[in-house]
Design a protein that fits this description.
With about 170 residues, the chain is an all-alpha fold. The chain has one domain (about 5-170). About 80% of the residues lie in helices and about 0% in strands. The protein has eight helices and no strands. The protein has helices at about 5-20, 30-50, 55-70, 75-95, 100-115, 120-130, 135-155, 165-170. Helix 2 runs antiparallel to helix 7. It starts with a helix and ends with a helix.
């Protein structure tokens, strides 16, 4: 049974909740430094995993085809619409985030939705666990996502917790 996607999704929800609740207490310098650190960790993990790839042409082809298909079906526009409706639903039941226009919120939300749900680490980690039963790659992503969700929730509020749901669906 797969466990990694559920642990990863739960980490995004918990991190988003903590970030939304305690966001005003986290210094700006920490909010700035941590995403850079997470990016560096992801790059290092990616380099390590790419070195182990046996069929790199297939990986490149999949990336090119994915980009072309995404552009042809206007995937980003659809995600943007979903982000806008998510903000409306979240604002209805939870405290609002002030300081961001609708366009700024949508732009940032789409970026982090793609970051969490369409990352190479997440897709590869889910496939790796499905084929081998080893969730270790998703566990690494879980640690990064817990803190990343917290940092982004300091800007976007409770909407970040909603990303846990599509994350689980995509990884399962």
């Amino acid at each position: 049974m797969l466990i990694g996607p559920y642990v990863n999704g739960a980490a995004v929800i918990v991190g988003g909740l903590i970030g939304a609740l305690a966001g005003h207490k986290i210094p700006l310098r920490v909010k700035t430094a941590l995403p850079l650190t997470f990016g560096l960790c992801s790059v290092g993990l990616g380099i390590n995993l790419v070195i182990k790839v046996k069929y790199m042409p297939a990986v490149v082809l999949a990336m090119v085809l994915g980009a072309v298909i995404g552009e042809l079906i206007f995937l980003e526009k659809g995600i943007g619409k979903a982000a806008g409706s998510t903000r409306g639903i979240v604002n209805k039941y939870l405290p609002r985030v002030h300081g961001l226009s609708h366009e700024e919120f949508t732009e940032k939300f789409v970026a982090i939705l793609v970051l969490f749900c369409a990352s190479g680490t997440g897709i590869f980690g889910a496939m790796h666990e499905g084929m081998t039963g080893d969730p270790s790659i998703l566990y690494i992503k879980t640690v990064l996502d817990l803190f990343t969700a917290g940092i982004f929730a300091t800007m976007l509020g409770y909407a970040v917790i909603t990303i846990g749901i599509p994350l689980i669906i995509i990884q399962v």
